[in-house]
Design brief:
Elements lengths: L9 E5 L5 H9 E2 L11 E2 L1 H4 L4 E5 L6 H13 L1 E2 L8 E2 L3 E5 L4 H6 L5 H7 L16 H12 L6 E2 L1 H9 L5 H15 L4 E2 L6 H4 L10 H14 L4 H19 L4 H7 L4 H10 L7
Parallel strand pairs: 1-4, 4-7, 8-9
Antiparallel strand pairs: 2-3, 5-6
Helix pairs in contact: 3-5, 6-8
Length: 280
Amino acid sequence: MNSRRRGEKFVTLVCGALPEQLLESELFGHEKNAFTGAGPMRPGHLERAVGGTLFLDEIGDIPQSIQAKLLRFVEEKTFNRVGGREDIRVDLRLITATNRCLREEVHAGRFREDLYYRLHVLEVEMPALSRRAEDIPALCAFFLNRFSAGRELALGTDASRLLINYDWPGNVRELRNAIEHAVTACSGRNIRPWHLPKTITQTSSFPAKVDLNGVLQRWVAVKVQSGATYKQLSAEVESTLLKHLMQHFDRKPTVLARVLKMNRATLLKKRRYLGLDSES
């Protein structure tokens, strides 16, 4: 906010998305007919960002031939267009980002050491999303607002818990896609677990593993001792299961039947038989 460039242009270039020749042309520009298909003279991103800021994303993917040319610009603030001889001087702020460890890339010989140290003026390390789970609710709210297109959408507590407990190997990009997926899949106002991608619902960790066999064993022992019949036992188990399922699916039998691949008519019949209709 305090930079003298705050009102100037902010130009971005994703370095890893372009082949070498095209990347060089996009970054430095080219003279007329400098190479096959070049066409008329075209300024590059360096010239477009004059006076402002140039953001180079995925700089660790830049080929070494272009790294040498970029090093000259970083040191001298001058460069040549592809196919040109004239030195062009520009004043701008350069910001770079990468998902690689550039120190390791330098040691492996894939990134120039001199360029690394010229770029390494002020480093801001962004921890993986899994290490800053406290940011997930705010990021979810931001993406919900972006993708909801005016709809009133909220993230349910159970869905929020899954998102917070997930490991996020794809970081913020994966979270963004997950929210966009959920907004598309949700027809109501609340995003629930079944609206999220299966990669999240099937792999999210839970705080504790319930010993269902142990619980049932103790419960059966008490019930049998009290004289309960098999019919009574099975009815109570099924009634409890359906109560929890209805609660999990916002008391929407149609959604429950579709997600669990259950016949809806059978579900409604079981609810009436077990006396659960009055709780809807």
